[in-house]
Amino acid sequence: MNLATNRNPGAGFTMVELLVAIAIVGLLMAVSVPATLNFYESVQYRQAVRDVITTLGTARQRALDTGQALDVAFDPERMTFGLGDDQQPLPEGFNLGVSTAAEVNRKGIGIIRFYPEGNSSGGDVVLESPTGRGVRISVDWLLGGVSQETFDAP
């Protein structure tokens, strides 16, 4: 029995077929990895915006419920914000800007104060992602309402 005659010439893959398959996988990886990183940053951005808005809304509601003024502190240097001792960090690479009433601020920390009547000291918080996408969160001084306006990189 001759082994050469029983061999199926179509069995297995040629070197060219393997190289084409590897090239296709490499191309898919080159496209999907940056898209995954952009998706992850987008999730971080949306969560940070949601956390800031929730914290502001919670402070307003607690001030109404307890009858005491409550402060939400924003520290652009440490990249944190929070209500009282519950300070939350913002994702790395993000920028935080705060514009609030000077009389309630403390040593480089922007404060938005909510009063028991439902109003606030007012102010703006600007949160910008590393790609330049951002949001301006505004707190109305008269009614204490929270609104947001998005912007994109120039």
Automatic annotation (TrEMBL):
Keywords annotated in UniProt: Membrane, Methylation, Transmembrane, Transmembrane helix
Which residue ranges does UniProt annotate as crossing the membrane?
20-40
Keyword Translocase found = no
A Pfam family assignment: N_methyl
Give GO cellular component annotations, separated by semicolons: type II protein secretion system complex
State whether keyword Transmembrane applies.
yes
Q: Which domain of life is it from?
A: Bacteria
Q: Provide the protein name.
A: Prepilin-type N-terminal cleavage/methylation domain-containing protein
UniProt lineage: Bacteria, Pseudomonadati, Pseudomonadota, Gammaproteobacteria, Cellvibrionales
